[in-house]
Each structure stands twice: as C-alpha cells, then as structure tokens.
C-alpha cells in the first residue's frame, strides 16, 4: 500500500502540514526537522508513490548533478563538463551543492526525483557510513524504477545498485605518487588525508600506505583535513610542530597541498630544498604555484563529460559498465631529493 502524507508525518514525528512545507519549500522549517522529514520520505519510499508513480514515465528535460562543493575546482570542473554535455543534448543541468552534508545529499536526490529528472550524476567521494549508504541505495533504486538514468562519477555505486560508474584510479595514482617521492630518497613522509569516512580519502590513503609498505618502512604520520586549502595549511603547521624530522609532505589533493606550501613559506621552510610537497588531481593552479606542484592528473573533465552523455542518453552503456579513468603522475619542481 502506498505511503501517505500522514504516514510520513507519523514516521518523522511532525504534522502533515510540516511535511507539506518541506515538500513544497514554501515555508521556513528548521534544518533538524527537514532532515527528519527527508529521512522518513526515503524510508517510506514516498517519492515513488501516489501522483509521482503515475507520472514516472513522463521525465523532465533536466539532469541533476550532485557535487560536494561547487567552489572547489575539482567539483566545478566536473559540474562544467556534465553541464556541457547536457546542454548539447538540449537538456538543463541543475547543480546541487551539498557542502559535504550527507543529509543535504539525500534531500537533493529526493527533490530531483520529485522533479522527475531525466538523469542524475553523483560526483566525488561518497560517505561510508552504513546508514547513509543504505539511504542512498534506496533513493537510487527509486530513481531507476522511475526511469531516471543514474551515473556515478568518481564514486562507487552502493551495494545492490547496478548503475554505470565512471571510476578514477585514486588508489593507483596515490601509490604511484608516493613511489616517486620514495624513489628520490625520502623515508620520513607526512601524509595529509581528506575527511575520514570518505571513499576518495580511503582509496588515496590506501595507495599511499601500499607504497610505503612496499619499501618496508613504518607507517607514515597521517593527519586528516577536509580537502580545503585551509585544512592543508593547518595540518602542515601541526606536522612541523609534532614531526620536525619530516622531509616530505604528501597531501590528499592539490588544494591541501597549496595550503601546505603556504604554511611552509610562512615558517621560512623552503620547498623543495627543506621539505618536498606533492598533491593530487592536477588542478589548474598546480602549474602556477611556485614551485610547480608534483601531483597526479585525473581526467576530471573527460570523465564528467562521459557521465553527462550517459545521463543525457546520448551515449549508451550497460548498467554494470565500469568506465576506467587512469591516473597520470605529473613530476614537477616541488619534489626533489632530501638535503
């Protein structure tokens, strides 16, 4: 039996009027209440019942793109590539910025489903908490049932959800990068990872550790940031304080690496003469910083464009397609042999 508005209200512990306000977005509702309502909507599969089920076959001319932070070049490149392919197919791309909030990710997916979007692209790393993974799986299952094309770009599909995945070689790229740092003579390396519980963080840290273990070295000093420049800056200062013997710092992405270089410059530490620095992603700023950043290049635009074509329906693939995007080591001036 299809869930009703009253069922959702009862599950969320609110009134039916509050559920309507959340659905329509026409009246202020607290963030805590919105999250409870959206969780109830997902648990009861409300978005694929009632009028939405009857209209499931009538998709709109919209592609939804879920990003973590559109101001981050990593995500803006992917959003731009996907939008370009949607526009080429005469479709409108709607960019949904989650700001790293798992509840906002669920909220935006639910909202896109209510708009009966033609396709949906989920970019970047995904949260690894089991409850969130189950909630995402349920929503994506509803999307597929409603005829929406779903593509994962840079993140794995939840267990039991068979959708095309554009897969970047985060683990292999990180392994190759750390092997390079080790090959020029560094044995005391600090690593600044992304946020814990994130699939991209986990893959890149695993690749780094594999390279270190291959050399028979003890595990490196690991701190976590949030992939922002500011977190790289703060982590570098902490590493200088707690591990003054380090000769190299590897960051989990370029933005954090740029923060590391700024922090070292502030403390009068030369790069690479005193400490070598490496990043990941090869964002445009990587070649402009002084010294130019040794990093790993991911084909972000190429991968995003392919995801956009699949979501738009202009490129046909099977639901189980795993579209591999290789990583490439970019050796530049920020890494050299230790003094």
From TrEMBL:
<dbReference type="GO" id="GO:0000976">
    <property type="term" value="F:transcription cis-regulatory region binding"/>
</dbReference>
<dbReference type="InterPro" id="IPR010982">
    <property type="entry name" value="Lambda_DNA-bd_dom_sf"/>
</dbReference>
<dbReference type="InterPro" id="IPR028082">
    <property type="entry name" value="Peripla_BP_I"/>
</dbReference>
<keyword id="KW-0804">Transcription</keyword>
<dbReference type="GO" id="GO:0003700">
    <property type="term" value="F:DNA-binding transcription factor activity"/>
</dbReference>
<dbReference type="InterPro" id="IPR000843">
    <property type="entry name" value="HTH_LacI"/>
</dbReference>
<protein>
    <submittedName>
        <fullName>LacI family transcriptional regulator</fullName>
    </submittedName>
</protein>
<keyword id="KW-0805">Transcription regulation</keyword>
<dbReference type="Pfam" id="PF00532">
    <property type="entry name" value="Peripla_BP_1"/>
</dbReference>
<keyword id="KW-0238">DNA-binding</keyword>
<feature type="domain" description="HTH lacI-type">
    <location>
        <begin position="3"/>
        <end position="57"/>
    </location>
</feature>
<dbReference type="InterPro" id="IPR001761">
    <property type="entry name" value="Peripla_BP/Lac1_sug-bd_dom"/>
</dbReference>
<dbReference type="Pfam" id="PF00356">
    <property type="entry name" value="LacI"/>
</dbReference>
<dbReference type="InterPro" id="IPR001387">
    <property type="entry name" value="Cro/C1-type_HTH"/>
</dbReference>
<feature type="domain" description="HTH cro/C1-type">
    <location>
        <begin position="4"/>
        <end position="47"/>
    </location>
</feature>
